[in-house]
Amino acid sequence: MHQIAVPPILQILASMSAVLDKAAAHCEARKIDPAVLVNFRLAPDMFPFSRQIQIMTDQAKGMAARLAGAEVPVYADSETSFADLKARIAKTIDFVKSFTPDRFEGSEDRDIVIKAGGTELKFKGRQYLTGFVFPNFYFHATTAYDILRHCGVEIGKRDFLGGL
After folding, report:
1. Where in the chain are the domains?
2. What is the mean predicted confidence (pLDDT) over 41-51?
3. Per residue in 74-92, is it b (16+ CB within 10 Å) or e — as a string?
């Protein structure tokens, strides 16, 4: 489970951190207030860029903790800049990396219970990872990428995929 879960999550976290660098450079080169991009949303009823990154990192840290049988850390969700968001990603990478493969042993059958929007969701570890974490993590990472791309940041698929 560790091999299936951790490397792809770390790959995208790292690539999104690099994408944030490109977004910051884009703003600087074009004299755009970075807050415009940090708060940008593609539609009025969707979360802004900053919240997409927050949820993406929440999925990553929640996955690592739950599959390892550990407590999920709580982040304040107070990031207002690219630097804040990069720090959140870095903190999440460190947290995910802190779990060795042996901590994930037997996690495919571990009971996982989470609350989402007032509903209690129950999973076995494998179902939680493949049917909940991965879809949510990639959805929010892709949405964050799409917001920046829509705003003119020069990024492409290789930026999203990172160091392959």
Report:
1. 2-161
2. 97
3. eeeeebeebeebbebbeeb
Q: CA-CA distance, 60 to 111, in Å (whole number)?
A: 18
Torsion of CA 48, 51, 56, 62, to 10 degrees: -160
Locus of tokens 């007032």 = 118
Q: 2-161: CATH homologous superfamily?
A: dinb family like domain (1.20.120.450)
Q: Which two tokens stand for residue 58?
A: 């929440």
- Taking the complete model, does pTM exceed 0.85, yes or no? yes
- Is a pLDDT exceeding 90 seen at residue 117? no
State residue 116's pLDDT score.
82
For residues 128 and 67, what is the distance between their CA atoms, to the nearest angstrom? 9
Please give the C-alpha separations between residue 54 and each of 32, 42, 46, 87, 154, in angstroms, as whole numbers: 22, 16, 14, 11, 22
Helix axes 134-150, 49-68, angle to 10 degrees: 160
Cα–Cα distance between 42 and 46 in angstroms, integer?
7
Give pLDDT tens digits for 50-65.
Answer: 999 999 999 999 999 9
